């Protein structure tokens, strides 16, 4: 991965209205931080309960701001009113940037992305994928030049870095639009070339796989976490981090990184995250992961 150092000078007017597809952990967070920066958001999911989760997350974060005296109740209402939940692609027509944040499954993403091109012909389309190559996802598109990666980190409202990924056919204008939007959010964009996992997850995946192997070898989860956080100084240990990410997402990420770099990342034969998912332990999202949350 090479970080791009040249500047992008394409037309990049301020983003006024975005679409967010998938109202889960990431989509809900992206909708919240965008609305909080005065950007109108159309948030789409396939079911009402998904939309409800995305909205309740925004509600929770805003309530904390009100409790701390950083926002008034009416400012909170203004932010929430900027998020328009929908189950229909038609509502996306007026958006100028759409961020796809559905499950980390290339087949699902390709279908969703192709549909977005038809729903909003003038919008720049971006994927929040953690690990899948942008050039690969672009194969399902008629206008791959309008497509890039905008990879937020979790939790979206706290993490300052956002990777902007330039696929093989991504235009300078598209990269410029993405960079400008990330800056509008007050976050730090880094433009990277395309590969499985981009920059951050190329570094993070071997760490998560080493944790995976350590647990399979009998390592104590609480001791590993305490060592990596309290003693080593990271904000949280790998078990806690995986619970925050979601075990299902972690499972898919490990699989797609192993497929992108076969035999190079030291993936154990057994995918511990997959076993966790099979046992309905999805992490904080369903209250049970490496730790229990209810
Ligand atoms: P999630 O499971 O919390 O949410 C996914 C949402 O997408 C769900 O609400 C689901 O109903 C919805 N969805 C599924 N199919 C859909 C469709 N066809 N149309 C509209 N909505 C659909 O997942 P997440 O953790 O938010 O991850 C989403 C994406 O973000 C993935 O690509 C993931 O790799 C990436 N990502 C995740 C993290 C993380 O820490 N969880 C961090 C960075 C990037």
UniProtKB/TrEMBL annotation:
Residues 18-195 form the 3-hydroxyacyl-CoA dehydrogenase NAD binding domain. Residues 197-293 form the 3-hydroxyacyl-CoA dehydrogenase C-terminal domain. In the N-terminal section; belongs to the enoyl-CoA hydratase/isomerase family. This is enoyl-CoA hydratase. The chain holds residues 299 to 592 of 713 of the full protein.
């Amino acid at each position: 991965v090479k970080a791009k150092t040249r500047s992008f000078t394409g037309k990049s007017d301020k983003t006024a209205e975005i679409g967010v597809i998938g109202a889960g952990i990431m989509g809900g967070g992206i909708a919240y931080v965008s609305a909080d920066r005065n950007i109108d958001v159309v948030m789409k999911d396939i079911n009402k309960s998904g939309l409800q989760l995305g909205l309740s997350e925004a509600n929770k974060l805003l309530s904390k701001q009100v409790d701390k005296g950083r926002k008034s109740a009416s400012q909170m209402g203004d932010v929430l009113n900027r998020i328009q939940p929908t189950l229909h692609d038609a509502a996306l027509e007026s958006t100028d940037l759409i961020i796809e944040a559905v499950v980390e499954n290339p087949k699902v993403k390709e279908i969703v992305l192709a549909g977005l091109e038809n729903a909003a012909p003038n919008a720049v389309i971006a994927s929040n994928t953690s690990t899948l190559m942008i050039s690969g996802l672009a194969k399902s598109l008629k206008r791959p030049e309008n497509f890039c990666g905008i990879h937020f980190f979790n939790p979206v409202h706290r993490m300052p870095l956002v990777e902007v990924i330039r696929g093989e056919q991504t235009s300078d204008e598209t990269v410029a639009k993405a960079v400008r939007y990330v800056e509008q959010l007050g976050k730090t964009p880094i433009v990277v070339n395309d590969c499985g996992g981009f920059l951050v997850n190329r570094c993070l995946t071997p760490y998560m796989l080493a944790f995976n192997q350590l647990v399979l070898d009998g390592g104590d989860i609480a001791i590993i976490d305490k060592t990596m956080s309290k003693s080593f100084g990271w904000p949280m240990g790998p078990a806690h981090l995986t619970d925050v990410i979601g075990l299902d997402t972690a499972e898919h990420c490990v699989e797609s990184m192993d497929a992108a770099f076969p035999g190079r990342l030291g993936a154990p034969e057994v995918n511990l995250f997959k076993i966790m998912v099979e046992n309905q332990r999805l992490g904080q999202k369903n209250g049970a992961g490496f730790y229990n949350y209810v």
